[in-house]
Amino acid sequence: MPHLRIEYSTNIAGRFDPAAVLTATTDALVASGVFAPADAIKARLFPVEHFRVGSGADHGFIHAGLALLSGRDSATKQRLTAALVEAIAPLVAPGPQVVQITSEARDMDRDTYSKRLIPGA
Question: CB 96: neighbour CB atoms within 10 A?
Answer without folding.
Answer: 9
